[in-house]
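Researcher: Going back to the complex we discussed earlier. I've cleaned up the inputs and rechecked each line, so this should be the final set. Can you rerun the prediction on the complete assembly and write out the structure?
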Amino acid sequence: MEITKKIIEKHGLKLEEYKNIQKLMRRDPNLLELGIFSAMWNEHCSYKSSRLHLKKLPTTGNQVIQGPGENAGVIDIGDNDAIVFKIESHNHPSYIEPYQGAATGVGGILRDVFTMGARPIALLNSIHFGSPEHPKTKSLLNGVVSGIGGYGNCIGIPTVAGETKFNETYNENILVNAMAVGHAKIDRIFYSKAKGVGKAVVYVGSKTGRDGIHGASMASAEFDENSDEKKPTVQVGDPFTEKLLLEACLELMRDDSIIAIQDMGAAGLTSSSVEMASKGSLGIELELDKVPCREENMTPYEMMLSESQERMLIILEDGKEDHARKIFKKWDLDFVVIGKTTNTKKLTLKFNKVIQGEIPIDALASKAPVYDRKLVRKKSSNSKVDIKKFGKIKIEDALIKILSSPNHSSKNWITEQYDQMVMCDTAKKSGSDAAIIRIHNKDKAIAVSVDSSANYCKADPLTGGKQIVCENWRNLIAVGAKPLAITNCLNFGNPENKVIMGEFADCLEGIKKACEFLNYPVVSGNVSFYNGTNKKNIFPTPVIGGVGLIKKLSEPVSHKFKELNSVIILVGKTFGHLGQSCFLKENFSVIDGKPPEINLINEKNNGETVLELINQNLINSAHDVSNGGLILALSEMAIGSNLGLKVEKNKNLRNLIEFFFGEDQGRYILEVKRNKLAYVEKILKSYNIHFEKIGFTQKKYFEIEGEMKTDINDLFKINNQWYNNY
Amino acid sequence: MRSSVIVFPGSNCDRDISVALEKMQFKNQMVWHKDTVLPKSDLIVIPGGFSYGDYLRSGAIAGKSLIIDEVIKAANSGCLILGICNGFQILTETGLLKGTLLRNKNLKFINKDVNIKVTNNNTKFTSKYKANQILKINIAHNEGNYFTDRNHLDELCKDNLIAFKYCDEKGNINMESNPNGAIENIAGIYNPKKNILGMMPHPERMIDNLISNTDGADLFLSILN
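Model: Rerun complete. Updated structure for the full complex:
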């Protein structure tokens, strides 16, 4: 078959890229080889537009065992315990087919974690939809939520935290990011680097079907009005088989049978075999007629490009075949030796003993294109929002507007569809800060949280990038965890657009600065470009997933008020920054101004001090102040606990709206017992922390002296009504 | 006391229940579904999860597996059998318990803590509870909407075979406190000999104050008694 211009375009390759392929191959590729190049060279697999920027991120630290480049990142939490975690996007498939798209997003990220020898212990997600009024939103929302639950519930891993946001920027391109966290022993971590020549390459798991062919290429292009036609590129998930695969793999990982293991994710058999060979500087030879197929007459092309789920590729030590086969047979899974490692440094594909294609491994991996794309940086706006021009608004009315808005109303109707308790180690379920998961059979626990701030990132990508790292860090601190490391999912528009590339570079710069300053390295992640339809790009939406350690879990600290008549302290300085605030957005539909500044020195100082107070058992409850400002944080503490509060009149208060709704960063609310107050104040002063006592907890009423006094049951109802009426 | 937990492909609360049993000092063994011999047991637990992925119908395939014949034999000779969640569904599929579990009335998976009332505390599973004690206990299911025919329902009521009913915090049994649409708010039932208990809520999730509460502990302590 002649490779025409049309065929090249259909494979998502540019003409220059095709010329490059001819050069690397020293001949024209055949269709199978072209397909393999398209699978490996697309944006999703090759990171060709992002690689130069990603290199700048801090990825090391004493706590880091494995940074980016493996299936997932690995960190050390002491006593030979490691945490393995990663976040990944499944945006494009979820927009086309929400249930399966989201479900396979969860399945894929779980495989990344257990491939490394970790038992998954928690799932998180960050999902973003268009405006609730958009005709597609409701069905996308319900489909995605059921898909996430359908997969996680069935495989039996708790979905413990997440965020659900609505913004019209996602009308035609939703975001579905799934994060998985696993626990492994440090001396039993498995990697994907092949070693040794002539070793058996084994295919395990589900059979290969025709689903998901070109999935990765689909995820590397913008949508247009015909995007529904891409449905066949979406894979179908089978969490039951994944559960079997998980147990079988972990069983085989108890001894030293495995040299290398890699899940078949995006670009399936192609990327898994190429990555293993490339990391080991080896070749790999596959006999494709041996691949277990679900459908008849599948061609080598289809087998190599299928993204059927729940499959793994393993390179086994000599003499371990029977032992390994027995385990997979016990779990009723396919187990077939389909090839061997070679010293040719080539990917050799045979079918019925005839070579169908042969490509140098480095042409697919290290020599894949890297682009230094043109970019323009956004000038940060200096406009200050003048609230006088919006007229007078009562504090209570503004709060109610926010509490009842789609973005800030309770998400219990979502989290109740996820099994959050299975495995019986969930010490704190998802709420507004981080979730806490106990390490099985141990005293210690980890805290996990995912966060994003697309509006901030759009208005000022550099500040936005810093802010999400800090907010994530704060969320872990607020539950008493020492933040250790992050994974990131970078959701952006079309990288061939200079403005988008500028947003990307600036957000990354912000992430880098904050991570460096807070010693909060990036250990894994994923880039999703081309989020947009018909040239309309989404807001830059980097999502940060953080993991922190609680050395000894006695009683989990949460954001819920704990007892009557304790003192409420606000830590951190309040300037009353309303630019890009949720106050403006929900009350006046205004998205304007610059996002709040990040002061990394204060951020670190405030956070470390709060953590020390919590660790010394001086705090009843704690909550970080973020979107929605002080008042929303206070109302979340009250609604969650069924205790009210009174904020006392204070002559120093500046403009009340700015004080209560400003979104200044680096702030926490602490609830402190009266008999511990003096000691807490002493510590805060000794670290030079700015703080103010703003009130105390009381029964029943959410009260701001002289401004509002509302029954918290009413606030609860207001906060829980949005979905019922949707 | 010796207990056995049957593990099917897709069971996912098997570890949780074995942790609970061991914490309560049971000598527990895990039994693989392809086994044909049951170890000598005083209690057999069929755990929660998604046996066979809930494909076909929840519990349907597991209800036909090899080990089930042994479970039925043990049940008939008086061994205590506890089916939790998917385990309850499997017990109804085997015929050891009557009735069936339909999809939740809101057609969604539900995971939350609910209140249930101990409607009969005069059994080997509940003797440590007070009569009409209210427990706060976690549910996590798609098909927990118990249904049975009129005759069986009469028999359940007459012979005091309803183990637990969904209620509110004060113990009122009403529509508002019924999470899944189960007939008569039924959360768990016994067979006529009361040696088999099937229940949708998860007692094994309620044995540790750090994670939840300890309202489930007395169920295991009752069995030990």
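Model: Worth noting: Chain A touches chain B through 32 residues (CB under 8 Å).
Researcher: Good, that matches what I expected from the previous run.
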